[in-house]
UniProtKB/TrEMBL annotation:
<dbReference type="InterPro" id="IPR006218">
    <property type="entry name" value="DAHP1/KDSA"/>
</dbReference>
<dbReference type="Pfam" id="PF00793">
    <property type="entry name" value="DAHP_synth_1"/>
</dbReference>
<dbReference type="GO" id="GO:0009103">
    <property type="term" value="P:lipopolysaccharide biosynthetic process"/>
</dbReference>
<dbReference type="GO" id="GO:0008676">
    <property type="term" value="F:3-deoxy-8-phosphooctulonate synthase activity"/>
</dbReference>
<comment type="similarity">
    <text>Belongs to the KdsA family.</text>
</comment>
<dbReference type="InterPro" id="IPR006269">
    <property type="entry name" value="KDO8P_synthase"/>
</dbReference>
<feature type="domain" description="DAHP synthetase I/KDSA">
    <location>
        <begin position="15"/>
        <end position="267"/>
    </location>
</feature>
<protein>
    <recommendedName>
        <fullName>3-deoxy-8-phosphooctulonate synthase</fullName>
        <ecNumber>2.5.1.55</ecNumber>
    </recommendedName>
</protein>
<dbReference type="InterPro" id="IPR013785">
    <property type="entry name" value="Aldolase_TIM"/>
</dbReference>
<comment type="pathway">
    <text>Carbohydrate biosynthesis; 3-deoxy-D-manno-octulosonate biosynthesis; 3-deoxy-D-manno-octulosonate from D-ribulose 5-phosphate: step 2/3.</text>
</comment>
<keyword id="KW-0963">Cytoplasm</keyword>
<comment type="pathway">
    <text>Bacterial outer membrane biogenesis; lipopolysaccharide biosynthesis.</text>
</comment>
<keyword id="KW-0808">Transferase</keyword>
<dbReference type="GO" id="GO:0005737">
    <property type="term" value="C:cytoplasm"/>
</dbReference>
Amino acid sequence: MKLDNIPNLKHIDANNFFLLAGPCAIEGEEMALRIAEKIVEITDKLQIPYVFKGSFKKANRSRIDSFTGIGDEKALKILRKVSETFHIPTITDIHEISDAAMAAEYVDILQIPAFLVRQTDLVVAAANTGKVVNLKKGQFMSPESMKHAVTKVKDCKNEQVMITDRGTMFGYQDMIVDFRGIPTMREYAPVVLDVTHSLQQPNQTSGVTGGRPDMIETIARAGVVNNVDGLFIETHFDPANAKSDGANMLDIQYLEKLLSHLVAIRKTINNF
């Protein structure tokens, strides 16, 4: 996959990692535009290719009373408005076969959630839209097994595919990132490191996922050192009151400092 195949992606000649970032879920138009505006300002300053991320709905919830979305079409229209307002590409995740064609009308990249990446019909439906497909590695899968998921997309005559590593389950309530998997998966497709989901602590007794946002920079630095092509970071102005994944999101006030450090590391790596 070539970055210049993603519509409206800026700064692709800067030799930087690219960034998928935004809130976990679209909670409303004002919050989405506000977050996008801030990240665009930062990424333009640092010359980072940027894709706005936001889930139009959340299907994988621990409890039935958890927030799932504001309405599919309403959220997708907000994603389109973000793209048109800031001239940036957007990405959202899909959960059902019927989601693929619907979401493809509004966004540039379709993401297959980690729990669903082995669902052949879903992967094929995404690939057949002709959109870029982002395959999140299952927490239960080896890096080597992602070759087969990539092949499913390419067998549909769609070469626009990338892999995102979001950690591997370690016990019941922790994720670990096996950085040996990055060069392995880069043999199949560009690799993104999902920094914030790698720090989730699922299966809490409360039914609300925990997290370790204090470790975000540690994981992100290691990813850049190990030549990931992109980073995935969920961020919010008020993580404590976010409607989804607040426990592992980055407070947006810290994003510019973090990305500045990571760009400096990338420049150093590029000199080797």
